[in-house]
Amino acid sequence: YTTPFNAKCMAANIVDCLRGTTDAPLSDCVLGASETCRLLNQHVKSEELNEVLNILVRFEIDEANCADAKELARLTTCIIRLCSAKEELGHTAFDYGTDLNDHIHSYCDIVKKTHPKVVQNALKDFEVVRGICDFFIKEQSKFVVEVLADGIRTLCQYSDSIPSFLVETPLLMNVVSRLENCPLENLSSYHTSLFTLIRAVLASENPPPIDVIQYLNKNLSPRLWLLTSNGYMDAISTLVMIHRWRIDGIGEEGVVQALKQGPNANIGSRLTESYIRDPSPYKFELLDGIFEDKDLVETIFYSNDIPVLLHICCDHLLNEEDVDLKKSILRFFITAGRNGFFDDQTILAINRCDVGDSLKEEAWKALIHKDTKHIA
C-alpha cells in the first residue's frame, strides 16, 4: 500500500517545517525551501523533486490550513477563553493578565511574520480583537494594559478592517479616560503606548461616531497641545489624526479651537520641527486650519519660524511625488497667502510645482493679490 505522491502537499509541509523550526518569516521560509530544492535538483535527478520546486517557485499559501493558520486558531481559542474568564470574574481575574499577554505576544509575532492572507482569514470575524478590547477596557494593571495596547496596535497595523471595527467600540473613550491625568513631561511607556493606540485606531477608513470625536476634542486635544509645547512630538501626530475626523459645524470643539484655549510660542517651533519629516496630507490639513486664524499664528510662532516653516513646505511641494500631498500643500499656501504669510520662495515654488490644475492657479492668485502684504 502506497500513498500517491502529492507535490503540492509536500511543498506546503516543507515550508511549514521551516516555519516551525526556524521561526523565520514565512516569505523567507518559502525562499529557503525553493533554493534548497533548486540546489538539490542539480544533483538529484527526480521528477518529484522538480515538481516540488516548480510549486515552491509559484507558492500559494493555504490561508486556512497552513501551520501559521492552525497556530493562530489555537491561540484564538486560548485568548477567548481567558477573556471570557475576565468577563465572568471581573477584576478578580487579574492573574489571567500574564497568560493573556503571553498568548497575545505569540499571536502578534505570527501576524508580523506570516502571509497577509493568513492574517485576514484569522481576523475576519473580529473574535480575537473583540475579546482583547473587552479585556482591555476592564483591566486595571498598567503593565497588562500596555501589552494589550501594543497587541491591538499590531493587529491594526496588519489588518485594515480592525481600526474600522474598533472605532465603533468604547475603546477610544476608555483610552482617553486613562490619559486625562497623564504627566506633561517624562511620559512612561504606558502613556506612549496608549497614544500610539489612539493613532492606530484613528487610521480607520471609517469615521468614529460623533460623540467619540467630540470626546477626543474636549478631553484629549487640549492636553496634547500642552504636551506638544513641552516637546512630546508624537502629540502632533495624534492631533493630526483627531483633526482628520473634524466635523463641519462643530469647529468650536475641534483641535484648532483647543489650541486657541492655550496657545504659546513653543508650539510653533514644535510644529516647524515636525513638518521636516514624514509629510502627509492630513498634517497639512491641520496646518491649514491653524493658518486660517492670523492672530493665532502670530501667537504660537516666533516671527523667524514662519519663513522656515514655509520653506520646508516648499521643499515638500517640489520634491515629494504624492499628488494628494502636493494639493494639500497648495491649499495650505492659499490659506496662508490670504493672511499674508508667504515670501518670494513660496511664489517660486508654486510656479515650479508640477500640479497642473486650478488649485495651482488659485494658490498663485492668493499670493499675488494686490491687497496682500507678504512677510518678506
TrEMBL record:
It comes from the Eukaryota. This is 26S proteasome non-ATPase regulatory subunit 5. It comes from Pristionchus fissidentatus.
